[in-house]
Amino acid sequence: MKLDRLRQSFEELAKFTDEGEGINRLAYTLTERNARDYLMKQLELAGLTVQIDYAGNVIARREGSSPDLPAVATGSHIDSVYAAGEFDGTAGVLISLEVMRSLADEGIKTDHPLEVIIFACEESARFSASTLGSKAMSGRLDPAYTRSLTDKNGITLMQAFEENGLDLEEVHLARRFRDEIKAFVELHVEQGPVLEKQEKSIGVVSAIAAPIRFHVHVGGTADHSGTTPMNYRRDALLGGAEIALAIEKAARAELEHGTVGTVGVFSIEPGAMNIVPGAADLYVDIRGTNRESRQRVADALETAVNDVAKARELNIWMDKTSDEEPVQMDSTIVAELKAICEEKGVAWLEMPSGAGHDSMNMASLCPTGMIFVPSKDGISHNPAEYTSMEQLMEGAEILRAFMLKQAKIL
Question: Which residues, 6 or more positions from 84, have their beta carbon under 8 angstroms from its beta carbon?
């Protein structure tokens, strides 16, 4: 594999972005479509046959000597959040491309077919719904739900599909079946600081965390800040702050399980300096790979809500907005990836993924694993996101070795 060629691939793909800081390549936009078309051409030049499925996923296939055998697949996504970095999702796609180029360079043939998949709409930035392409491929996409999706400009998902030459009513035809894919492994930047902190080159993902999410509304009384004595106040902000601190305390008690709790949104009304806040809304994300640990933090939230409501005489209600299941990676693939790292003398760490990925959905379709490479300072979803080419190449070597072992070199 060629480091300079990989670097050039990143430079070329980074040109496909809308205006604004960093990378802005939202799902199903013309910019993403142009980037997709560029990559499809590169994959074809590497000897793969390329098609687009009914969800807009790109499936590039390198035939094996036995085309009827299930494929060994890899890939990721190229759509981005707003003001993104160059590596999230893109790293997995461009490394997959480089692996395929290297096989063409060396004339390597395999028994099983190989596939590179570029998933559509992994990020929720545009339609507030994530991993739509892999959900469609694994048969987990709810058609009724997709019809309700609209972006901030009022464009529906159905309209976006039409702009891409797709029909939302046919998205169910993107579904694939267990006998089609032998294994799927996604390479991704870690998006966190663990590998760098522990001086490891490769993360072998054991499980992908999933969130329980809540909306907590705190009702108090808006009063004049100068004329209302402290002991007569029903301050919604302070009540909400107590709840937020209770979440932090409960999550810290679960450090051994890696469970985290976040108040990502905390808004108050009326929102003036001279008015005691009369209402507050908190949006809470509690996630981890251990369901029991995650539930303990959720229980602590409920306890805090009841205690704060009583102590401060506030009207508080909470609504669970989602409850997703953590996903375990295939144990055989985890063991094989660790063995490959050992064989190559690469420092590895078995670890969970706190972020969601297309692999969550692929795990319901076929044996699935993930490879992480380090992220500088743990930064992601940010123009400052960075992973060196040398670190990416180490990940590429592990991915290539896994795919060739699974596909059986002739």
Answer: 22, 23, 24, 25, 381, 382, 383, 385
- State whether 339 and 199 are in the same domain: yes
Strands (E), 249-405: 260-269, 275-276, 279-288, 315-323, 327-328, 348-353, 368-373
Supply the mean pLDDT for the chain: 96
Strand ranges (E), 36-91: 49-52, 58-62, 71-77
DSSP string, 288-331: ES-HHHHHHHHHHHHHHHHHHHHHHT-EEEEEEEEEPPPEEPPH
Asked if residue 383 and residue 300 are part of one domain, the reply reads no
Residue 381: pLDDT band with limits 50, 70, 90: very high
Residue 137 · residue 362 · CB < 8 Å = yes
**Count of domains observed in the chain:** 2
The per-residue pLDDT for 143 is 84
Q: Output the pTM of the full model.
A: 0.89
User: How many whole angstroms separate alpha carbon 350 and alpha carbon 143?
Assistant: 36
Joined tokens for residue 66: 């036995």
Compute, in degrees rounded to 10, the torsion defined by CA atoms 346, 351, 357, 363.
90
